[in-house]
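Hey Z.,

So I finally got round to the heme C thing we talked about over coffee. Here's the setup:
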Amino acid sequence: MPSKPILRTCWSAAATLLEFTGESAAADRINGQRIAERWCAECHVVASGQQQGSDKVPTFAQIGGSKHFDEASLAAFLMAPYHSRMPNLSLTRSEISDLIAYIRSHGR
Ligand code: HEC
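And the result:
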C-alpha cells in the first residue's frame, strides 16, 4: 500500500501545526521578551520604552497589531524568514512560540 506513508507524513505535518498553536497558548511571554531584546532589538523596536531600531523595520507593536499575522503565519515566518533583509536566526520551536506570545501581547 504506497499511500500509507504519505498519509502518515500528512498527519505528522498537521500534528506539528497543531502543536504550534497549542503551545503558544502556554508560551512564556516573559521569555519571549528576553529573546526579543537579545536577538531582535538590534533592528526592531521590540518594547515601548525602546527609542530606536533600524529604519523601515516594523516595530513589534505594528507586527502584533497587524491582521496579516496570526500565530500560524508568524511561526511559519520565524521558522524560515523569507525576507532577505531578515536574518535566519535558527530559533528553536519553543523560542518561536515564546516570541509569538510576546509579539502578540503588543498592539492589543
Ligand atoms: C538584522 C536586522 C533584523 C533582525 C536582527 C531581526 N529582524 Fe525582523 N525584520 C527585519 C527587516 C529588515 C524586516 C522587513 C521589513 C520590510 O521590509 O517589510 C523584518 C521583518 C520582520 C517581520 C515581518 C515580516 C513581514 O513579512 O512583514 C517579523 C514578524 C519579524 N521581522 C520578526 C523578527 C523577530 C521575532 C526577530 C528576533 C528573533 C527579528 N525579526 C530580528 C530585520 C531584522
